[in-house]
Design a protein that fits this description.
The complex is a heterodimer of chains A (408) and B (122). With 408 residues, chain A is mainly α. Chain A has one domain (2-402): Amino acid/polyamine transporter I (Up-down Bundle), CATH 1.20.1740. In chain A, 78% of the residues lie in helices and 0% in strands. Chain B has one domain (21-121). Helices cover 84% and strands 0% of the residues of chain B. Chain B has five helices and no strands. In chain B, helix 2 (24-46) runs parallel beside helix 4 and helix 4 runs antiparallel to helix 5 (105-121). The chains are: A mainly alpha (408), B mainly alpha (122).
């Protein structure tokens, strides 16, 4: 039971990070556009985030220092500041998209006006983040977000051709629409490897007081948490491939994945899907605002942490509240949260290389890590994924322009 | 320096990607998607598998998108464009009726049939 509660950090990181509004949209659109053909990308993405989360969790547990602390130290002030600015823009855009997502789901559940619900949603999330201790935030959003498992049941109920599903795990290229296909490959990898997940995970490990004795739980947490996220991504893609692709539906709305659960499981499926989405995007909103505050505080050497009373870390507390206020301002302009999230996912790849490189360097440095440096497998995977990250960082923006944001 | 260049490129890309206008073929595809999704929603509502609130609100999101397609197509001068404009208006009407349908299952079933027919023809 204790271990089950301990892996909440991984589940929140996965539910709020791996299956946030960006993944809900990208996975559903990928299934509706290319059927099962992009399932393999989720596997590639989840292995990458497991490798780097395990690494940054280990670094946090041994050195007691989170990622952004190390970014500044290893890449220098100027490059560190560039990474900070890029990360903060991505965090803010993602937080705005999640806040908009919370309001949309509340609207689909209650029928109240969207603008009031944005305000209500932000106030609700800020109050919850203020009042609840860190571990209860992990548990509340992580475990209630498991309502998304309804998509796994829906994926079975829609009776996909399992042979074709299995074929989707083999990388390949479709006969047409190459650029759009590659845009989705990059988008799905970008959504899986979002930097805020590792900022949150490593800061959370420090908040949870991990030490050398917790390295096993670090491995279990990253594998189970992100593995679960990947499982949900498969389910979303399968449901979309079976229900939306043959009808020509192009999922552009947050309610569309819920419509898939409704078609498969009726009213109960619909409600479970909406509640799961609400807690997944709500958890992601908190993760992104905290990640933004963690980054700034760690970069400038301020006192930080949710475990600290706000009076003990006032600039940290003010930072995450400011991020919520700015996110509220962005969503209040009326810009579609789903569009914001598509842009933020592509934009996030800019911050990827400078986030992941310091983790790889420090995880290999015995000065920080003692005898807990990377083994051969971790290093080989770390280097392969770093090269992959560079490739997607360079190709994301051209693909976005060529495909008109995936529209073809 | 690299980070600043990438940031500038990314901002330019966001602006460029957001400025693209849709061709008639893309408009037709969008309308088909809206009609199909509306048909699925109406079908679930007709079978009592949806909540009144979800049907009304999700139909509202689809309607908003149909409104913007209809506005764009209203300016079309080609025969194909005018034909699509008529289809867009029909989808608008159906989605408006679905939004107001409450628990009228017979109406929802009629709308399902019509929207699915439109989606098949596009």
């Amino acid at each position: 039971m204790k271990q089950f509660l301990q892996i909440a950090l991984g589940i929140l990181s996965a539910i709020g990070g791996f299956v946030d509004i960006g993944d809900l949209v990208f996975n559903t659109q990928a299934g509706a556009t290319f059927g099962f053909q992009l399932l393999w990308v989720v596997v590639v993405g989840v292995i990458g985030i497991i490798v780097y989360s395990e690494m940054c969790g280990r670094v946090a547990a041994i050195s007691k220092r989170p990622v952004f602390d190390l970014v500044r130290e290893r890449v220098g002030f100027s490059a560190g500041l560039g990474t900070l600015i890029a990360s903060e823009i991505v965090n803010l855009l993602t937080c705005a998209a999640e806040v908009g997502g919370v309001a949309i789901v509340l609207q689909l559940l209650s029928g109240l006006p969207y603008r009031y619900l944005i305000l209500l949603g932000v106030i609700g999330v800020v109050v919850i983040a203020w009042v609840l201790p860190f571990e209860w935030l992990e548990r509340l959003f992580g475990y209630v977000g498991l309502g998304l498992l309804v998509f796994a049941v829906a994926a079975i109920k829609v009776h996909p051709q399992w042979g074709q599903v299995a074929h989707g795990f083999v990388p390949g290229m479709p006969a047409h629409n190459h650029a759009v296909y590659l845009y989705f490959v990059v988008g799905l990898l970008g959504a899986a490897l979002t930097p805020y997940e590792v900022y949150f995970y490593s800061s959370g490990a420090v908040e949870d007081g991990w030490g050398a004795k917790d390295l096993r739980i670090n491995k279990i947490t990253s594998v189970i948490g992100y593995g679960l996220g990947a499982f949900l991504s498969f389910a979303l893609m399968i449901v979309a491939a079976v229900l939306f692709l043959p009808r020509g539906i192009d999922p552009q709305f947050l309610g569309t994945p819920a419509l898939g659960a409704q078609e498969a499981l009726g009213k109960v499926g619909l409600i479970l899907a909406l509640v799961g989405i609400l807690f997944a995007v709500g958890g992601a909103a908190i993760e992104t605002s905290f990640s933004g505050a963690y980054n700034v505080a760690q970069f400038f050497g301020w006192q930080w942490g949710k475990r600290e009373k706000p009076s003990g870390a006032p600039r940290f507390a003010l930072s995450w509240i400011i991020i919520f206020v700015l996110a509220l301002g962005i969503v209040m302009t009326g810009y579609d949260p789903v569009k914001i999230t598509e842009y933020s996912v592509i934009f996030s790849v800019v911050a990827l290389p400078l986030t992941f490189l310091p983790i790889l360097l420090v995880a290999n440095d015995p000065t920080y890590m003692g005898r807990y440096t990377n083994g051969r497998i971790s290093n080989a995977l770390g280097i392969v994924y770093f090269i992959l990250i560079l490739v997607i960082a360079l190709s994301a923006i051209p693909l976005m322009v060529i495909t008109n944001g995936g529209q073809g | 320096m690299l980070a600043r260049t990438l940031l500038a490129l990314a901002l330019a890309a966001v602006l460029l990607a957001g400025c693209g206008s849709q061709t008639l073929q893309q408009q037709s595809k969008s309308l088909k998607a809206l009609a199909a999704e509306g048909g699925l929603l109406a079908g679930n509502a007709a079978r009592g598998r949806s909540t009144t609130v979800f049907t009304r609100e999700h139909a509202g999101f689809l309607l908003k998108s149909a409104n913007s397609s209809a506005s764009a197509l209203a300016r079309a001068t080609s025969a194909k464009g005018r034909q699509l404009a008529q289809v867009a208006v029909r989808i608008q009407n159906d989605l408006e009726r679905l939004q107001r349908s409450g628990s009228d299952r017979a109406e929802q079933q009629r709308l399902q049939t019509d929207l699915e027919r439109i989606a098949r023809k596009l």
